[in-house]
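Re: that chain you flagged

S.,

Sorry for the slow reply, it's been a week of failed gels. I finally had a moment to sit down with the sequence you sent. For the record, here it is as I used it:
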Amino acid sequence: MKKSAVSFIFLFIGVFSFCYPMRAEENPCSFSGYLWGSGAVSTFEVYSDTPEASLVIDWPRGTCDFWVRATGEDRNVILIDQSLSSGDVLTLTGSGIYYFIISSRWGTGCWEATVKHNKN
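Prediction finished late last night. Pasting the structure tokens below so you have them in one place:
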């Protein structure tokens, strides 16, 4: 196999794994992304098997207006819909799947969400 073909295969695998949405079971500790300006969104889901968990979101404070929206398993009931400047530590109460959308109202930057399962 030619060197360029091997390079293409690794490039394809790298791009696919970056673009393919991760399920919570594959990466239970943290999620990250980059929002490219107003209207940009990133999504991820968290599976919690504990009565309570915390989601801590790190983002470029003061240089953008990022929002978080969370829904439960049925995706119809909005549990959280707020600016991260109002609070970037969220408490997840009850086990189950939570779906999150991080969006930019204005500004660009990286974000990272870390799940901390509170074992009681």
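What I noticed first: The beta strands are 30-36, 41-48, 52-58, 65-71, 78-83, 89-93, 96-106, 108-118.

Talk soon,
D.
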